[in-house]
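dumping this here before i forget
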Amino acid sequence: MKILHYALGFPPYRTGGLTKFCIDLLKQQNQNGHQTALVWPGRIDFLGRKVSIKSRKLCGIQSFEICNPLPVPYDEGIAQCSFFTENAKEEPYERLLKSFCPDVIHIHTLMGMHSSFLEAARKRKIRCVFTAHDYFPVCPKVVMVCQGRLCLSAKSCSDCGECNKTALPIHQIKILQSVLYRAVKDMPVVYKLRKIHRDGYLGKDMANRNIRVSGMAEDYRKLREYYHSLLKKMDKIHYNSTLTKSVYEKYFQLPNSEVISISHGDIRDCRKKKKFSSERLRLSYLGPQGEAKGFFLLQAALDEWWKTNKQFCLNVYFTPIKPSPYMRPYGRYTYADLETIFDNTDLVIVPSVWQETFGYIVLEALSCGVPVLLSGNVGAKDILAPGAGIVIEDLTAEKLCRVLKNITSEQLAAMNNVILEKQEILTLNQMAEFIETRCYCCKSL
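structure:
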């Protein structure tokens, strides 16, 4: 089978769970005997706007770079909606599909994609599958969080202009999609500037900044309907959790779908018997510093607990803007570091405020035998064996503080035993086979 994936690109230029999922799945499919390639939104020229597609090998993978795609806003939001719905001629895409002849096109995001790509695929009767990694088709900010809490006006889009007022202007997005930026992205000075920007962007005071509102509610309703029209062209929607499915179905009618939990190529079954001390609780938070992931909620809960109990620490893997005394900051980690991190962790906390579609860190922790404490907004709760962790619905700082106060070393040991005896650890190959048989509708090799 020939499978053409559409995603944001290759590491290190593109990072995150979506990129990890796509590249690892693509490589696994190659190992399973399929022929795969990745088409991705590349550079935007400042002068010419003609769409072309460049073919070459990247990271050992057949790559098709779209030159002059639509802008990619990532999670920064959209201020000028009209730029994100422009179309292009079908000829470049027709040539791509004629040369590669895919049996399936697996789409991982709608960012940067011209509708003419899907139109060319439909003309050739190529099966199209969409994996919902986030809520971009519903929310330009991806996470459906407004001013630190779940967006309550998503249906009407009445707050979208206010929420997206910090979106990057088109000329800055073009810079970020330039060949020059790819070359300098990880240089120390550029990395520092990126960090300053992200710290400010994710900071709690961002919504209060005096920035002009970006657009009208009607603009965002039209944008959502445009994305709905693209999703309706898919033959199958793959949801990575029941939570993701429930959120999408509030806004879109997409009847042909499958819920399949996900994995990645660095998941190994490293479960082990752990010892837990009653003297000091070692907590770990492996997300970024931001409201959507629940870091500030977690900090508020632990600040309160610290007033009466000094027998815990929190490992974080960034430099907090305002660190609390119980925090142990570490640098950025890699997948190779995870086993060591989890050896020094008693409980992983995933306190997401946004309705996180999955949450790889849950599977990663369980694969090392570490109990987890989750917000009910984490899609990965689907995979949690009963007794392997704690799920707190409608999470607040007060609820989290109460639960943590009552956790004992005996309870943690019991959770560890459940993980060892009953927790399923989904491998990448198993996931790939599920997707092939249930989404691509082909027989497993």
